[in-house]
Structures are given as structure tokens and as C-alpha cells.
Amino acid sequence: MGEVRFDGGCGVRVSLVMGSESDWGVMSHASSILERFLGEDYEVGIVSAHRTPERLFEYGRGLRGRGVRVVIAGAGGSAHLPGMIASLTTVPVLGVPVEGKSLLGLDSLFSIVQMPGGVPVGTFAVGKAGAVNAALFAVSIIGGEDEDVGRKLESYRAEQTEKVALKPSGFAGV
What is the signed CA dihedral for 84, 59, 126, 33, rounded to 10 degrees? Predict the structure, then answer.
């Protein structure tokens, strides 16, 4: 998995952020998917809704101007990061609840999914599956604008289909 990088520069279409370093264990799975489909056309960084509020406001308000098309935001606990980013931009925000030390990530899931009407955040499953699916969803958004990315996604989906056996291994019946 790649190193954590975030330069706040221009020219990336997907921004992957997390609330703290401890979220990288989950969010690195999203990074791997983005690397596969977008190469270096994404950024990674840490923006804490509670500990770095000035960074959060600068980040959220600057997304569209930097050309970012999709944000994937992962957070645990109170998980305010995706909703706060969504309140600062019209760029689509995909929220990934990260399992914390208590409540099995349900606190994060409920926080992200219960956004008030008018401030949408696409919410995914808790943990690795959510990170992978958020990244694939971001890739599908980019793939709607970029035929090369769209073809890569179609190929990936075909690979997924080919991996499914017709019958369980060891089945001796008809």
C-alpha cells in the first residue's frame, strides 16, 4: 500500500481523507483501489473535524477550485468528517465509517448516515468493505467522464464475475 500523501495541490480528481492516522488501516484499502484505476490521479491526507478545524474549512471550501470531482472521507467515533466536508462543498462526498474501540463502528455508521436533508453524504459499510466500495463508487463516477477509467472498471467487474464458480468445490452431485 502506498504512503500517506496529501499536498493540497491541483490536478487530482479524487481526494481520500481520514480523521486520523489510525484510520489508515481501513482507508488504505480504498487507496489500493484508487491506485489500480487512477494511478496518481488521487490524493491522500488527514483532516480532523475536531483537531484541525481550520484545515478542514480550507480543505472543504477549496475542493471544487482544485478540480476534485469526488471525496472519500473515512472517520471513526463521532465520524463528523464526511458531513462537515459535505457542508462546505457541492463535490460529492462518500463516507466510510471506521470501526473504533467501542460500538463496532455503529456509532460511526449512524453519524454518517444520519445527515440532515439537504446535505447528502453517500454512506458505505463499516470498515474494509466500505472503503473498497467507496473507492469503486468514486471510480464509477470518474468512469462516467473518462472512457479509459470506465473500460478499466468494466474489465474489473468482468474479472469479478469470472471468479464466481458455477458449483461449490467438492460438490459431487449432479
Answer: 150
